[in-house]
């Protein structure tokens, strides 16, 4: 029994880390398993303005770093591994990973989302060669170059403002009549001199040989097509894609109740349809996906794990 955890948390975004803080603080034997980097999607966020108590110079990475340290200070274990299979129905649940197999009384799923692709030819080919899904990772590579951003929501507009610090010009390409971000963010964006916005368009082609040096867009009302190319003295343009997210829940299909978009259904206590299994953060079916709501989910799940065990 000494090798059995009270709770295993799969994923380490704000939801998973908050669950880890609360469960470890409650003296539950806690393990957080992360496939990539501790912190999840917020590591790709350059600026955070709407999380309570945030510092002026905070980034997603700095906030995640403090959350990780809190987990460790309270006694949570963190390992990097990839979950391959789960057995959730027994009282003692089994999490089979690439490097190890773990046993636990409860599971909190915090697998989050991944970026939705454009679904156009050659997208994979140009990834890392002009095309990116992460402004904070790659924005500095496009200093004084033409940059285009696909998307019209909060993420697209906020990341456009970050990219504008480096790029010669940033052009937002939105399929909507109006931007789908908050009015506050839209107003801030419109004050940035080197950002322009084209609405009612979609990207239909990616152009170039080894590097992305052009895109074709189509007007959704007139069907007119226009090509944007790199300037004559430049070999590459930047294209950053922020057109939404898809839940990373394939591992749980057939086990957990999912909504029609693939998000995990829970009750108000974060409980799934299986006893002792909870879901938090962006992988959960809900209306608002923000750092603060993921953190709230994690706290609620951890408190209910303690009740379940006791």
Summarize the structure.
The chain is an alpha/beta fold and 310 residues long. It is built from seven helices and 17 strands.
Give your account of this protein's structure.
The protein has helices at 14-25, 60-74, 123-126, 135-138, 154-163, 183-190, 291-309; strands at residues 4-10, 30-34, 77-80, 83-87, 93-97, 101-109, 113-115, 131-132, 146-150, 169-173, 195-198, 201-207, 214-219, 225-229, 238-241, 245-247, 277-279. It is of the alpha/beta class and 310 residues long. The chain has two domains: 4-114 and 245-309, 3-Layer(bba) Sandwich (FAD/NAD(P)-binding domain), CATH 3.50.50.60; 123-241, FAD/NAD(P)-binding domain. Strands 1, 2, 3, 4, 5, 6 and 17 form a seven-stranded mixed beta sheet that branches. Strands 8-15-9-10-11 form a five-stranded parallel beta sheet, with helices on one face. The chain has a three-stranded antiparallel beta sheet with strand order 12-13-14, with no helix packed on it. A hairpin with a 3-residue loop joins β5 (93-97) and β6 (101-109). α1 (14-25) packs parallel to α2 (60-74), α1 (14-25) packs parallel to α7 and α5 runs parallel beside α6.
List the helices and strands and how they pair.
Blueprint lengths: L3 E7 L3 H12 L4 E5 L25 H15 L2 E4 L2 E5 L5 E5 L3 E9 L3 E3 L7 H4 L4 E2 L2 H4 L7 E5 L3 H10 L5 E5 L9 H8 L4 E4 L2 E7 L6 E6 L5 E5 L8 E4 L3 E3 L29 E3 L11 H19 L1
Parallel strand pairs: 1-2, 1-6, 2-3, 6-17, 8-15, 9-10, 9-15, 10-11
Antiparallel strand pairs: 4-5, 5-6, 7-16, 12-13, 13-14
Helix pairs in contact: 1-2, 1-7, 5-6
């Amino acid at each position: 029994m000494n090798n059995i955890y009270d709770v295993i948390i799969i994923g380490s975004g704000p939801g998973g880390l908050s669950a880890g803080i609360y469960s470890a603080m409650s003296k539950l034997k806690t393990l957080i398993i992360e496939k990539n980097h501790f912190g999840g999607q917020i590591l790709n966020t350059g600026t955070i303005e709407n999380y309570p108590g945030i510092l002026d110079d905070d980034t997603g990475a700095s906030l995640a770093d403090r959350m990780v340290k809190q987990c460790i200070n309270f006694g949570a274990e963190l390992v990097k591994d990839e979950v391959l299979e789960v057995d959730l129905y027994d009282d003692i649940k089994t999490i089979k990973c690439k490097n190890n197999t773990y046993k636990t009384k409860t599971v909190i799923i915090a697998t989050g989302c991944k970026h939705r692709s454009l679904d156009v030819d050659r997208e994979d080919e140009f990834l890392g060669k002009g095309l990116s899904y992460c402004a904070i990772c790659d924005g500095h590579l496009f200093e004084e170059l033409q940059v285009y951003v696909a998307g019209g929501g909060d993420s697209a507009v906020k990341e456009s403002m970050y990219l504008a610090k480096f790029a010669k010009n940033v052009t937002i390409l939105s399929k909507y009549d109006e931007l789908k971000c908050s009015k506050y963010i839209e107003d801030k964006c419109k004050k940035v001199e080197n950002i322009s916005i084209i609405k009612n368009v979609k990207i239909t082609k990616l152009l170039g040989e080894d590097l992305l040096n052009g895109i074709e867009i189509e007007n959704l009302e007139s069907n007119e097509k226009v090509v944007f190319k790199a300037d004559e003295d430049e070999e590459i343009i930047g294209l950053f894609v922020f057109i939404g997210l898809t839940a990373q829940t394939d591992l749980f299909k057939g086990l957990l109740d999912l909504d029609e978009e693939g998000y995990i259904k829970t009750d108000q206590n974060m409980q799934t349809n299986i006893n002792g299994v909870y879901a938090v953060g962006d992988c959960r079916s809900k209306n608002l996906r923000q750092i603060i709501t993921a953190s709230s989910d994690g706290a609620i799940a951890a408190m209910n794990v303690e009740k379940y065990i006791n």
